[in-house]
């Protein structure tokens, strides 16, 4: 009788490989020090606080070691050693993630991309920027702007998050409505596989139909398939004419109508369309210490950015469009920023989420739903939360042009309630709508058990098959995603 092969065994096929080290840690660290140098392998108190947890502040844990490689070659050598020892490795970027994806367990080795940073090349003819993975998003944006271009990726954590982390999470952010997610900004990618092999596809071509487009397997894979070391990012002509407005609306349907009205008039020049329900807006105004520019309270607010090329009359055309909408009864009120400082003040209300971990015990959701269903979902969700946990404080906002709704429930307002119960309660409401439990932050460790709400068994099996093919020992970021 022959032994069943791996492919015959259904259980083995669907189980995610998860490594348990087969070599003593001391032996692995010795090999790592020999390969990378002593200063690149930190242990115990040498590991700074930053490596212990991400922006969720979830379960801070000191990993067994922190690697600080400076080059792709060093990442490759480190992974080859860990692969041979079946040693779990957790890639770490700027640690601004909101899904617990970069948090290492006590027996894991964390691998920081912090020292593998810097812009390598700006190619004006190709309109591309080649950067190392540890470069902060802001540094990449500034390099693009200095050459008259624009990197069409922007989010509140820009000063700390890294390009590698942005790509590993396929970050969304404020400009998706205009230019797509992080995935859409990538032309080439260099990745180190679990066994140390380097997959260097740093092409600058827009068109390249030579078989599978492998980069897309790694973008959004949350460090479970490979370590991103370099990327070629697509640049866009700089949209110098930015105009920002805050508008007050009757209800969600009015917001969708306004979005369509502005899209008809300005096409792709609508750069942001951020909806804030009053709970969020009022809290944002309070947190920023600002005064609401409106005299009265309103049922809904939208922060809108017109981002075009034509500096001459773009502001006037945008203002005229809002005046027309006001006269047509399509909105209740509007204020238009008259200066960069005004625009920043309006954006500060929307970006008050950076303060949430300091002011709240945040239970964060970043779900997605068809745009037309978001308003009804918010009403139902709020009513259900109020019925289940009277007195809860919940804040709704979203990039609705991208079908993305955010909700933060303040755990302080429901003392004694386990966060998990709140996650399960809200995610279950998505199931009948076939919504996504993560629009942009990823699954990490926090949403693992809820992934089947959004993915079919066949989809999950295909993901596990890819994981098994690229990381057969399961050393990369075990316990995340699956
Ligand atoms: C104030 C604030 C605002 C935010 N706004 C947004 C927003 O609008 N849209 C949005 O999408 N997100 C947002 N986020 C979440 C977060 O900033 C993004 O998820 C960001 O892309 C994470 O980048 P990072 O470098 O901090 O990654 P980390 O948090 O360090 O890691 C995130 C995941 O990527 C993996 N990873 C990191 N680097 C690499 C690499 N080089 N190779 C392979 N895997 C890697 C990690 O293992 C982990 O699974 C926000 C966060 C904050 C704090």
UniProtKB/TrEMBL annotation:
GO biological process, one term: respiratory electron transport chain
InterPro entries: FAD-bd_oxidored_4_C (IPR004113), FAD-bd_PCMH (IPR016166), FAD-bd_PCMH-like_sf (IPR036318), FAD-bd_PCMH_sub1 (IPR016167), FAD-bd_PCMH_sub2 (IPR016169), FAD-linked_Oxase-like_C (IPR016164), FAD-oxidored/transferase_4 (IPR051264), Oxid_FAD_bind_N (IPR006094)
Cofactor(s) recorded in Swiss-Prot or TrEMBL: FAD
Low complexity biased stretches: 12-21
Positions of the UniProt region annotated as Disordered: 1-21
GO terms for MF: FAD binding; oxidoreductase activity
Domain of life assignment: Bacteria
A Pfam family that the UniProt record links to this protein: FAD-oxidase_C
Domain FAD-binding PCMH-type: 58-238
Keyword annotations from UniProtKB, A to Z: FAD, Flavoprotein, Oxidoreductase
Family: Belongs to the FAD-binding oxidoreductase/transferase type 4 family.
Name of the protein in its database record: FAD/FMN-containing dehydrogenase
